[in-house]
């Protein structure tokens, strides 16, 4: 049975198989959720990331979780919002799709996503949540991956949006 749920939490506290990190192309750390993930995981995460040779927008790469309660971190790079006509939705969907593919390939049974691209990268939260829920439902339907998905919202407003969208799936 595969489930999708939204929770309000600091993603670094979740004891899931993998937490997804909203990183940048260098994979060298940054602010927002990326900064929180690196702080909680410890310096071994940065050392592991340095061996990955960066990551392109829409792609995803996996490391161990080191000091995190999560076993693994899936690093993905969301698109910067530039008005909506620069393939932002397609690239954001690719982040969710490729992260789930990695989870499936590693036989992970639970994965938590932050609201990728909706902080420093400026993607409007409602549009981003619609992409996230649609892409994850579609990917779970099309694959045999037995993975439970958590949409980890930092704030109450994001949580309300996800709960509303998930009721309609
Ligand atoms: N747990 C869960 N969600 C969080 C946490 C947390 N601990 N901290 C922030 N958020 P952002 P982006 C939420 O800016 O827009 C970094 O510098 C936050 O409220 O972290 O993809 C990277 O290195 C927002 O809803 O990621 C990149 O350069 C969401 O996470 C750039 O920012 C995403 O906000 C990526 O920007």
TrEMBL record:
GO terms for molecular function: O-acetyl-ADP-ribose deacetylase activity. Signal peptide: none annotated. CDD domains: Macro_OAADPr_deacetylase (cd02908). Pfam families: Macro. SUPFAM superfamilies: Macro domain-like. Residues 1-169 form the Macro domain. This is RNase III inhibitor. It comes from Methylomonas koyamae.
């Amino acid at each position: 049975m595969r489930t999708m749920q939204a929770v309000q939490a600091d993603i670094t506290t979740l004891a899931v198989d993998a937490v997804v990190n909203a990183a940048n192309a260098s994979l060298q750390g940054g602010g927002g959720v990326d900064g929180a993930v690196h702080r909680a995981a410890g310096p071994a995460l940065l050392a592991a990331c340095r061996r990955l040779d960066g990551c392109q927008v829409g792609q995803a790469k996996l490391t161990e979780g080191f000091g995190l309660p999560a076993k693994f971190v899936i690093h993905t790079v969301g698109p910067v919002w530039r008005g909506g006509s620069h393939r932002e939705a397609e690239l954001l969907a690719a982040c969710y799709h490729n992260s789930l593919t990695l989870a499936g390939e590693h036989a992970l049974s639970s994965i938590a996503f932050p609201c990728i691209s909706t902080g420093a990268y400026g993607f409007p939260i409602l549009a981003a949540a619609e992409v996230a829920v649609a892409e994850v439902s579609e990917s779970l339907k099309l694959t045999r991956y037995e993975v439970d998905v958590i949409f980890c919202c930092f704030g109450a407003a994001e949580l309300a949006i996800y709960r509303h969208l998930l009721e309609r799936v």
